Amino acid sequence: MKKAIILARVSTPEQEKTGLSLEDIQLPQMREYALEKGFVVDSEYVFQETASQKLRKKFDEMVDYVKKSKDIRAIIAFRVDRMTRNYRDAVEMDNLRIEYHKELHFVNDRLMLDENSVGRDIQDWDLKVFLAKQHINRCQEDAHNTLQSKLKSGGTYGRAPYGYRNISKEEERNNLNLPRVVVEPFEAGIVKKVFDWYTTGSDSYLSIANRLHKDYPTQFPVLKTARRKVENIIKNPYYHGEREYKGKIYPHRFETIIPKEVFELATEKRTGRARVKDKQKKVTKSIYGGLIRCSECGCAFSPSPNRHTRLGREVESDTYYYCTNSKRQHEQKPPGTNDKELTEQFAKLFKSIKIPQKDLDKLTKTLRDSHEGKKAFTIAETQECRTQIDKLQRRIENAYEDKLDGSITTEQYNKFRENWTKQKEEYEGKLARISKADKEYYITASYLLELASRSYELFLGSEPEQKRQIITLTLQNLTLKDGNLCYDWVKPFDSIFVSAKSHKWGRLWREIRTALMAHYIDLAI
What we know:
The chain has 19 helices and 15 strands. It has helices at about 15, 20-35, 55-70, 80-85, 85-100, 120-155, 170-175, 185-200, 205-215, 225-235, 260-275, 280-285, 305-310, 340-350, 360-405, 410-460, 465-475, 495-500, 510-525; strands spanning about 1-10, 40-50, 70-75, 105, 110-115, 165, 180-185, 240-245, 250, 295, 300-305, 320-325, 335-340, 475-480, 485-490. The protein has a 5-stranded mixed sheet, with helices on both faces. A hairpin with a 2-residue loop joins strand 14 (about 475-480) and strand 15. The longest helix has about 50 residues, at about 410-460.
């Protein structure tokens, strides 16, 4: 008894209604054909899916089953285009026919192929496969043109994003003036909250997802899903009136949920986080960025622009600072702070180290004594470095002459030159360090004198970059706890602070001189 399988397919629901019905047309005719030809139907593969270049799951299942079943003699289809509309499937069918000795029967086309088919039958098969493929190409081109028309006109296509709803066909019939996409009030409210939280600078995708997961457990039952939803919302321009398709932006004509300015603020923050790797680039955007860390987890207190400033509103501070919580140690982020509050706390610190006028003469003498020792050290070290550099340069030049004279080989010369050049570069590096240390010494001494005489006024009157220099010169280990600064003084400012606090200057001057020289020598060597 010969066995066969039946393959019945429609690409779209419209085909089911317009001439290729599975139950009314295809299956009855194929079953009758199998009976006439003496086949016993082993199984029927009935499915609805497109025959694009993507492999169809059920089609592949059918092919695998036929290959494994030696007693399956034939595959019966309604037409060639019901079995294949692409060349990959056509090759697979030819392989079944030739390598596995299967018959291909096409009821409506009155065509049967087996391993012995030649001539006109093969030509008919090839032609019908080609025409089926061309039909797919035309459908794809029509779909592309339709989509482009919708994009350019601002119409809808596909599923609207979270915060919106596609209206049903029944709603459209009942109200012809209803737009194809409408705002969903509850979801739109969440979208607004997401942008509001994100653009303030205090929240990341994860912290916003935590909020949503906690406040709306039915809407966001899984934290991972909530985080992905937050990211998709932040990146989607649809909410301010544009849609992205294959890297291009098109305006749409449906209601917006947020202003474009808010979306741009969110984009700047998002792309800035991914793009800026150099810490100094972040620092230049704020007064205190990169200086302060969280006292609890050790993460940076990151600066974030005040979005109200960007929107033209008056504010007391241009920048807010929040713990990044990159180590995920906080269930809830600690309170942030702003430029105004930090400036007030720093100013209070510098006011506490102000030295009375009567003691400034002693400090000036201390700096002068320290300068004499530093000058002697600088002259000696600089002279030694230049002597060694000149000596090594002469050795290189003499070795080159010896190579030209044939006294040494090229290999020997290259070895000597490499060794002496390395030593020379080490002395040149030390000379550069001495020069840098010399410059920093005068900066340190100058700031020390200025801060000692009018620290409070100097800090408040400085430009942002000067404020940063004063802070890094005098303070270290800066952390924030409950909005309050924690810190350590850098030597010799710790001695000034202790003396100012106790009003006992005692050995302060000698400690300052020793600290300045030690700092200078460390930098130079």
